Amino acid sequence: MRPCPLIRERFGFPVKGLLFILHRMNYEVMPLGPYQANCSVLWDDPAQAWIVDPGADSAAVLGFMAKRGLQAGLVVLTHCHFDHISALGDILVKFPVPVVMHADDVDFAFSSYNVMPPYRQTPRPASLVTDKRDGDALSCGGLTARIIHTPGHTPGGWCLFFEKERMLVAGDTLFAGSVGRTDLPGGDEAAMDASLKKLKALPDDTRVICGHGPQTTIGTEKQTNPYLRGGSVGGW
Ligand SMILES: [Zn+2]
Ligand SMILES: [Zn+2]
Q: Ligand 2 centre and the CA of 228: distance in Å?
Protein backbone atom coordinates (compact mmCIF):
# COMPACT_ATOMS: atom_id res chain seq x y z
CA MET A 1 0.00 0.00 0.00
CA ARG A 2 1.39 3.37 -0.94
CA PRO A 3 1.78 5.75 1.99
CA CYS A 4 -0.24 8.90 1.89
CA PRO A 5 2.03 11.58 0.39
CA LEU A 6 0.72 14.13 2.84
CA ILE A 7 1.69 12.00 5.81
CA ARG A 8 5.15 11.35 4.40
CA GLU A 9 5.67 15.04 3.95
CA ARG A 10 4.34 16.02 7.33
CA PHE A 11 5.61 13.20 9.48
CA GLY A 12 9.04 12.43 8.14
CA PHE A 13 10.37 8.91 7.83
CA PRO A 14 10.30 5.62 9.73
CA VAL A 15 13.37 4.82 11.83
CA LYS A 16 13.86 1.20 12.91
CA GLY A 17 10.17 0.55 12.61
CA LEU A 18 9.18 3.62 14.59
CA LEU A 19 7.63 6.62 13.03
CA PHE A 20 9.99 9.50 13.70
CA ILE A 21 7.71 12.44 14.04
CA LEU A 22 8.93 15.65 12.51
CA HIS A 23 6.21 18.20 12.55
CA ARG A 24 6.63 21.03 10.19
CA MET A 25 5.88 24.59 11.08
CA ASN A 26 5.48 27.54 8.80
CA TYR A 27 7.01 30.68 10.18
CA GLU A 28 8.49 34.02 9.29
CA VAL A 29 10.68 36.22 11.48
CA MET A 30 10.75 39.94 10.78
CA PRO A 31 13.16 42.26 12.60
CA LEU A 32 11.20 45.48 12.91
CA GLY A 33 11.63 49.05 14.06
CA PRO A 34 14.57 51.04 15.44
CA TYR A 35 15.41 48.25 17.93
CA GLN A 36 14.98 45.50 15.32
CA ALA A 37 12.87 43.36 17.64
CA ASN A 38 11.88 40.10 15.98
CA CYS A 39 8.19 39.76 15.19
CA SER A 40 7.24 36.17 14.33
CA VAL A 41 4.31 34.90 12.31
CA LEU A 42 3.76 31.17 12.82
CA TRP A 43 1.04 29.07 11.29
CA ASP A 44 -0.34 25.69 10.41
CA ASP A 45 -3.86 26.79 9.46
CA PRO A 46 -3.51 29.93 7.29
CA ALA A 47 -6.83 31.18 8.67
CA GLN A 48 -5.46 31.25 12.23
CA ALA A 49 -1.85 32.40 12.27
CA TRP A 50 -0.05 33.47 15.44
CA ILE A 51 1.56 36.89 15.51
CA VAL A 52 4.17 37.10 18.27
CA ASP A 53 5.59 40.48 19.35
CA PRO A 54 4.28 42.98 16.81
CA GLY A 55 6.73 45.63 17.97
CA ALA A 56 6.79 48.12 15.10
CA ASP A 57 6.09 48.57 11.38
CA SER A 58 2.59 47.16 11.26
CA ALA A 59 2.64 47.67 7.47
CA ALA A 60 5.40 45.08 7.16
CA VAL A 61 3.50 42.55 9.26
CA LEU A 62 0.16 43.13 7.56
CA GLY A 63 1.86 43.15 4.14
CA PHE A 64 3.38 39.75 4.85
CA MET A 65 0.03 38.40 6.03
CA ALA A 66 -1.67 39.63 2.85
CA LYS A 67 1.06 38.31 0.58
CA ARG A 68 0.80 34.82 2.09
CA GLY A 69 -3.00 34.88 2.37
CA LEU A 70 -2.94 34.61 6.17
CA GLN A 71 -5.53 35.62 8.72
CA ALA A 72 -4.52 36.03 12.36
CA GLY A 73 -6.02 33.86 15.07
CA LEU A 74 -4.00 35.07 18.01
CA VAL A 75 -1.45 37.65 19.11
CA VAL A 76 1.05 36.68 21.81
CA LEU A 77 3.37 39.10 23.59
CA THR A 78 6.50 37.52 25.04
CA HIS A 79 6.88 40.47 27.42
CA CYS A 80 5.88 44.04 27.99
CA HIS A 81 8.62 46.15 26.38
CA PHE A 82 7.65 48.80 23.86
CA ASP A 83 9.83 47.36 21.10
CA HIS A 84 7.73 44.16 21.21
CA ILE A 85 4.21 45.58 21.48
CA SER A 86 4.03 48.95 19.71
CA ALA A 87 2.32 47.78 16.49
CA LEU A 88 -0.39 46.01 18.47
CA GLY A 89 -3.08 48.66 17.87
CA ASP A 90 -2.76 48.55 14.08
CA ILE A 91 -2.70 44.75 14.03
CA LEU A 92 -5.91 44.60 16.10
CA VAL A 93 -7.71 46.99 13.76
CA LYS A 94 -7.14 44.52 10.94
CA PHE A 95 -7.41 41.34 13.06
CA PRO A 96 -9.48 41.83 16.26
CA VAL A 97 -8.16 38.67 17.93
CA PRO A 98 -7.21 37.74 21.52
CA VAL A 99 -3.92 39.15 22.81
CA VAL A 100 -2.22 36.80 25.26
CA MET A 101 0.40 37.95 27.76
CA HIS A 102 1.48 37.14 31.30
CA ALA A 103 -0.46 39.01 33.97
CA ASP A 104 2.73 40.23 35.67
CA ASP A 105 3.72 42.34 32.65
CA VAL A 106 0.36 43.94 31.93
CA ASP A 107 0.53 47.07 34.09
CA PHE A 108 3.91 48.18 32.78
CA ALA A 109 3.13 47.26 29.17
CA PHE A 110 0.36 49.78 28.73
CA SER A 111 1.68 52.47 31.06
CA SER A 112 3.19 55.84 30.16
CA TYR A 113 6.56 54.56 31.46
CA ASN A 114 6.83 52.09 28.60
CA VAL A 115 7.84 54.57 25.90
CA MET A 116 11.02 55.54 24.11
CA PRO A 117 10.60 57.90 21.14
CA PRO A 118 9.74 57.13 18.39
CA TYR A 119 7.86 54.32 20.18
CA ARG A 120 4.70 55.64 21.84
CA GLN A 121 2.45 54.39 24.60
CA THR A 122 0.35 51.40 23.54
CA PRO A 123 -3.33 51.38 24.57
CA ARG A 124 -4.45 48.37 26.58
CA PRO A 125 -6.39 46.12 24.19
CA ALA A 126 -9.95 45.07 25.01
CA SER A 127 -9.18 41.50 23.95
CA LEU A 128 -6.36 40.97 26.47
CA VAL A 129 -6.09 37.44 27.91
CA THR A 130 -4.01 37.21 31.11
CA ASP A 131 -5.01 33.94 32.76
CA LYS A 132 -2.23 31.80 31.27
CA ARG A 133 0.47 30.54 33.63
CA ASP A 134 3.71 28.58 33.54
CA GLY A 135 3.11 25.12 32.08
CA ASP A 136 -0.21 25.98 30.48
CA ALA A 137 -0.86 25.00 26.88
CA LEU A 138 -1.85 27.63 24.35
CA SER A 139 -3.56 26.31 21.21
CA CYS A 140 -4.79 27.98 18.05
CA GLY A 141 -5.04 27.01 14.39
CA GLY A 142 -3.48 23.57 14.73
CA LEU A 143 -0.48 24.72 16.79
CA THR A 144 0.04 24.22 20.50
CA ALA A 145 2.71 25.90 22.61
CA ARG A 146 3.61 25.25 26.22
CA ILE A 147 4.14 28.42 28.16
CA ILE A 148 7.44 28.61 30.02
CA HIS A 149 7.41 31.52 32.45
CA THR A 150 10.89 33.04 32.31
CA PRO A 151 11.08 36.09 34.59
CA GLY A 152 14.38 37.93 34.86
CA HIS A 153 14.29 40.38 31.98
CA THR A 154 10.76 41.37 33.04
CA PRO A 155 8.52 39.82 35.75
CA GLY A 156 6.03 38.43 33.23
CA GLY A 157 8.34 37.38 30.45
CA TRP A 158 7.62 33.99 28.97
CA CYS A 159 8.76 31.73 26.18
CA LEU A 160 6.55 29.68 23.86
CA PHE A 161 7.70 26.10 23.40
CA PHE A 162 6.17 24.29 20.43
CA GLU A 163 7.15 20.83 21.56
CA LYS A 164 6.10 18.82 18.50
CA GLU A 165 7.84 21.25 16.17
CA ARG A 166 10.91 21.68 18.43
CA MET A 167 10.59 25.46 18.31
CA LEU A 168 11.04 28.02 21.08
CA VAL A 169 10.03 31.65 20.76
CA ALA A 170 12.22 33.14 23.47
CA GLY A 171 11.52 36.87 23.53
CA ASP A 172 14.31 38.75 25.29
CA THR A 173 15.17 35.91 27.68
CA LEU A 174 17.71 34.17 25.40
CA PHE A 175 19.77 35.46 22.49
CA ALA A 176 22.40 33.81 20.31
CA GLY A 177 25.43 34.14 22.58
CA SER A 178 23.78 36.24 25.25
CA VAL A 179 20.73 36.73 27.44
CA GLY A 180 18.32 39.55 28.22
CA ARG A 181 19.24 42.49 30.42
CA THR A 182 18.31 42.27 34.09
CA ASP A 183 19.05 45.91 34.96
CA LEU A 184 15.82 47.39 33.60
CA PRO A 185 12.75 48.01 35.81
CA GLY A 186 11.40 44.62 36.93
CA GLY A 187 14.66 42.84 36.08
CA ASP A 188 15.93 40.16 38.47
CA GLU A 189 19.26 38.33 38.20
CA ALA A 190 18.31 35.34 40.35
CA ALA A 191 15.06 34.92 38.47
CA MET A 192 16.94 35.04 35.17
CA ASP A 193 19.32 32.30 36.33
CA ALA A 194 16.35 30.10 37.24
CA SER A 195 14.66 30.85 33.91
CA LEU A 196 17.77 29.92 31.94
CA LYS A 197 17.91 26.58 33.78
CA LYS A 198 14.42 25.85 32.48
CA LEU A 199 15.51 26.58 28.91
CA LYS A 200 18.66 24.45 29.25
CA ALA A 201 16.42 21.48 29.99
CA LEU A 202 14.79 21.66 26.55
CA PRO A 203 15.94 19.29 23.78
CA ASP A 204 19.20 20.34 22.12
CA ASP A 205 17.62 20.37 18.68
CA THR A 206 15.06 22.98 19.69
CA ARG A 207 15.28 25.90 17.28
CA VAL A 208 15.14 29.26 19.03
CA ILE A 209 13.64 32.46 17.66
CA CYS A 210 15.23 35.15 19.83
CA GLY A 211 13.75 38.55 20.61
CA HIS A 212 16.57 40.23 18.70
CA GLY A 213 19.24 38.96 16.34
CA PRO A 214 19.68 35.60 14.64
CA GLN A 215 18.04 32.28 15.40
CA THR A 216 19.93 29.58 17.23
CA THR A 217 19.33 26.22 18.93
CA ILE A 218 19.33 25.19 22.58
CA GLY A 219 22.23 22.81 21.85
CA THR A 220 24.34 25.58 20.29
CA GLU A 221 23.69 27.90 23.22
CA LYS A 222 24.52 25.20 25.76
CA GLN A 223 27.91 24.85 24.07
CA THR A 224 28.74 28.48 23.32
CA ASN A 225 26.65 30.85 25.43
CA PRO A 226 28.57 31.73 28.65
CA TYR A 227 25.33 32.25 30.56
CA LEU A 228 24.18 28.74 29.73
CA ARG A 229 27.57 27.08 30.19
CA GLY A 230 27.49 27.63 33.89
CA GLY A 231 28.03 31.35 34.43
CA SER A 232 25.29 33.02 36.39
CA VAL A 233 23.87 36.32 35.22
CA GLY A 234 24.84 37.92 38.53
CA GLY A 235 28.41 36.72 38.16
CA TRP A 236 29.10 38.78 35.03
ZN1 LIG B 1 13.51 43.68 23.00
ZN1 LIG C 1 12.73 43.46 26.35
A: 19
